Amino acid sequence: MSAALIKCPHCGATNRVPADAAGHPRCGKCRRDLPWIVEAGDADFGAIAEQSPVPALVDFWAAWCGPCRMVSPVLDKLAQERAGRVKLVKVDVDKSPGLSRRFDVQAIPTMLVITGGRVVARQAGAPPAAALRTWLDEALAGRREGSKP
User: pLDDT tens-digit profile of 80-127?
Assistant: First the structure.
């Protein structure tokens, strides 16, 4: 498993954050929650996303996809805003065709929320930032697609 270097948004310290770990990442200096943004592929998706100790927001994307490039910064911001509560897992569909087939990804971007190894929410396309925020918050609150608020 790889590790990423994440700059703490609170104190500026650089932290090494593993792609999979128990708990969730915290800054070694100020001890505040860090955003957890990682990449996964066919080989390591189970350990990184399905066995994640916090809900995983999975982004199926491709470098050539314009809408994917529009959604990516929004997802990064959501992961930063919800540091300690969600792990953003980016899956390049060109490098991980097995995952695309497994989760029946027919359009990109497609986002999933996985909690306890189960898909609890799914969103295809590039909705506005406010709609993505609402969708993610509802998924994290345990609401299912089609459920009433």
Answer: 999 999 999 999 999 999 999 999 999 999 999 999 999 999 999 999
Is 68 annotated in the active site?
Answer: yes
pTM of the model: 0.89
Q: What are phi and psi of 113, to 5 degrees?
A: -115, 125
Alpha-carbon gap, residue 81 to 44, rounded angstroms: 26
Catalytic residue among 8, 11, 30, 68: 68
Amino acid at 75: L
Measured CA to CA, the distance from residue 62 to residue 67 in angstroms comes to 10
Provide the token pair at 86.
């969600």
Active site (annotated) includes residue 8: no
143 DSSP assignment = P
pLDDT digits (tens, 9 = 90+) for 32-59: 999 999 999 999 999 999 999 999 999 9
Count CB atoms within 10 A of the CB of residue 56. Answer: 24
DSSP state string for 90-126 = EEETTT-HHHHHHTT--SSSEEEEEETTEEEEEEES-
Tally the residues of the chain: 149
**Marked catalytic residue, from 8, 11, 27, 65:** 65
